[in-house]
């Protein structure tokens, strides 16, 4: 992309690009035309086009007919695999297309002509690439679902010095995130609770602000339950205060079970519009009874994280302090404060105290949540992959980023999903390819934040054997992807955004991201000097585990002298792709949907 600001003009169907303030380059604007496949589909089903109608075409190319409601039903059934569409639903689609394109003459039109049909296919809200509503069984226990999970949800930027705020929490909930993480610390006076990344320079935000924001925005994008995971660094008194806050702010929205522990997790469907809390049950460990050490200047310590353990010198100091008090009195005081807080914990959490293999032994009458860092997950999956799968069939496994990701970057989520881990905790405030994969996975199931795990991750054999992620499997199906064309950049970008001297040179890259055997990359040719690139290329992707595969799509603008410019991206779960010709909207680097940019593509499964 040219770095100097250049001038350009639009004149009589062409763009004029000025070079070196002396020369004009004129580029004609080519109107977007239906591809051959679109034209053929129209001719097959339109009345009067020599296809599925009266068999009489009024011109040589067979494209002068009209598609009415019955014909559109046939097209959606035969060509798009949408067998459940009724004539009334098809008529509503036709009416909407005509309303958008022919406002003045909408009452005189009885169906879609070729241009109308082509535009219908390009409307991503009328012809989306994946099912736009919840369609999976939501009555299974929570452990049967991948859950959209945030990490340090209150941070606005990096892990060391950014501000803490309720705003990232709100944005995450609006995007559909269902698990919000809050780190709780005493304030400077020890009388109230702040949310912050401990032992860093992050500025705190009061807990009450975060809780009220969760209450107000929890169900703005999905009715299914929000889980608040708490990393608790509080005294018993402050834990009781948290319980009081949560009870008063959430009211009837707050769910907690009658018993201390669950034999099986409830289902998302049974928890509609409910908020649940997950943390470690309170216990009388030394730090919680002696906040003195906690209140010391922590600026020279390492950032707090779920994998930290108390330092030896801290434990010794606390033991000395404890000797002056009665253990029995402390125990009684803590027990008096505990019940209200402990009772609100629905999902009991913990970290491995011994070996991970020992911690992952399944208990028959109790379910829980276990947290592992991304490195611990890698090590465990390398040595005990089937134990992880077996554990996640009934229990919840949460994976969090390693502590050195100070810039709030993320890790590869597929290893966790392949082993059944439900909560892949991500930093949602940045952007990058890993986060694009997370966005893609949770576009599934209507974007509700809960995606049913594939059946093979939940099955057990006669000898308690489970899915082996390391086992090589045969190809189950082949996905064929055809990239027809793209449109919308001219509307969303200035005409010199990509190149100061000519229209852009777009190409499309496609990636399959899944189990290692399925990973693949493809690339279209470069279409030079065209705001409406037409590639018309098809690619095949053989898949061994299509249930866990993601199709990542990225459009780039070729630049001979610099790094190729970004033109949009999306990521789609392969298992959710709708067959046929579809409109695929693109998103910016942060995952926000672009206003106009979209691709016309076709998906076929064989």
TrEMBL record:
Subcellular location: Cell membrane
PROSITE patterns: C2, PIPLC_X_DOMAIN, PIPLC_Y_DOMAIN
Disordered: region residues: 289-342
Gene Ontology cellular component terms for the protein in this record: plasma membrane
One Pfam family named in its UniProt record: C2
Key words, A-Z: Cell membrane, Hydrolase, Lipid degradation, Lipid metabolism, Membrane, Transducer
Cofactor annotation: Ca(2+)
EC number(s) per entry: 3.1.4.11
Hydrolase as UniProt keyword: yes
Broad class of where this protein is predominantly found: membrane
Residue ranges of domain PI-PLC Y-box in the record: 371-457
UniProt cross-references to InterPro entries, sorted A to Z: C2_dom (IPR000008), C2_domain_sf (IPR035892), EF-hand-dom_pair (IPR011992), PI-PLC_fam (IPR001192), PLC-like_Pdiesterase_TIM-brl (IPR017946), PLipase_C_PInositol-sp_X_dom (IPR000909), PLipase_C_Pinositol-sp_Y (IPR001711)
SMART domains for the chain: C2 (SM00239), PLCXc (SM00148), PLCYc (SM00149)
CDD domains in the record: C2_PLC_like, PI-PLCc_plant
Protein name (database record): Phosphoinositide phospholipase C
Origin species: Eutrema salsugineum (Saltwater cress)
Lineage start: Eukaryota, Viridiplantae, Streptophyta, Embryophyta, Tracheophyta
């Amino acid at each position: 992309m040219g770095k100097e600001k250049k001038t350009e003009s639009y004149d009589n169907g062409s763009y004029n690009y000025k070079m070196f303030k002396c020369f004009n380059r004129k580029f004609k604007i080519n109107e977007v035309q239906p591809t051959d496949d679109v034209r053929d589909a129209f001719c097959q089903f339109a009345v009067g086009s020599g296809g599925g109608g009266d068999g009489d075409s009024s011109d040589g190319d067979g494209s002068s007919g009209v598609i009415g409601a019955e014909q559109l039903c046939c097209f959606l059934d035969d060509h798009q695999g949408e067998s459940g569409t009724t004539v009334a639903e098809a008529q509503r689609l036709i009416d909407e297309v005509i309303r958008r394109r022919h406002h003045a003459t909408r009452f005189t039109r009885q169906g879609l002509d070729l241009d109308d049909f082509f535009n219908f296919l390009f409307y991503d809200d009328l012809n989306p690439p994946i099912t736009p509503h919840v369609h999976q069984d939501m009555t299974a226990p929570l452990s049967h679902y991948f859950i959209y999970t945030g990490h340090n949800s209150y941070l606005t930027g990096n892990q060391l010095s950014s501000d803490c705020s309720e705003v990232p929490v709100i944005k995450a909930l609006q995007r559909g995130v269902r698990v919000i993480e809050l780190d709780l610390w005493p304030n400077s006076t020890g009388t109230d609770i702040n949310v912050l990344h401990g032992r860093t320079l992050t500025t705190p935000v009061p807990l009450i602000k975060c809780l009220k924001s969760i209450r107000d925005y929890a169900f703005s994008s999905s009715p299914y339950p929000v889980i608040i995971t708490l990393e608790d660094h509080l005294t018993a008194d402050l834990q009781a205060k948290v319980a009081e806050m949560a009870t008063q702010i959430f009211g009837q929205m707050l769910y907690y079970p009658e018993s201390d522990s669950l034999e099986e997790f409830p289902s998302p469907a049974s928890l509609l519009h409910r908020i649940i809390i997950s943390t470690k049950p309170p216990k009388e460990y030394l730090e919680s009874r002696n906040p003195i050490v906690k209140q010391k200047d922590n600026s020279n310590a390492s950032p707090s994280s779920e994998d930290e353990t108390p330092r030896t010198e801290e434990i010794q100091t606390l033991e000395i302090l404890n000797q002056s008090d009665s253990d029995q009195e402390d125990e009684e005081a803590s027990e008096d404060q505990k019940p209200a807080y402990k009772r609100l914990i629905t999902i009991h959490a913990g970290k491995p105290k011994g070996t991970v293999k020992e911690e992952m032994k399944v208990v028959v009458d109790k379910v829980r949540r276990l947290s592992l860092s991304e490195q611990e997950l890698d090590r465990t999956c390398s040595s005990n992959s089937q134990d992880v799968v077996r554990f996640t069939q009934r229990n919840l496994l949460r994976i969090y980023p390693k502590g050195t990701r100070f810039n709030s970057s993320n890790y590869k989520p597929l290893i966790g999903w392949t082993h059944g881990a439900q909560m892949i905790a991500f930093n949602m405030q940045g952007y990058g390819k890993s986060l694009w994969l997370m966005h893609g996975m949770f576009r599934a199931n209507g974007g509700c934040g809960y995606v049913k795990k594939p059946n093979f991750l939940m099955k057990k054999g006669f000898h308690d054997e489970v899915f082996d992620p390391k086992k090589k499997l045969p190809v189950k199906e082949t996905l064929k992807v055809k990239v027809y064309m793209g449109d919308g950049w001219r509307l969303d970008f200035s005409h010199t955004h990509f190149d100061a001297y000519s229209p852009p040179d777009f190409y499309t890259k496609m990636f399959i991201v899944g189990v290692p055997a399925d990973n693949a990359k493809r690339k279209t040719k470069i279409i030079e000097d065209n705001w409406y690139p037409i590639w018309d290329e098809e690619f095949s992707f053989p898949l061994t585990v299509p249930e866990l595969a993601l199709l990542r799509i990225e459009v780039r603008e070729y630049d001979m002298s610099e790094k190729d410019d970004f033109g949009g991206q999306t990521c789609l779960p392969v298992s959710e792709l709708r067959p046929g010709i579809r409109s695929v909207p693109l998103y910016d680097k942060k995952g926000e949907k672009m206003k106009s940019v979209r691709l016309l593509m076709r998906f076929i499964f064989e």
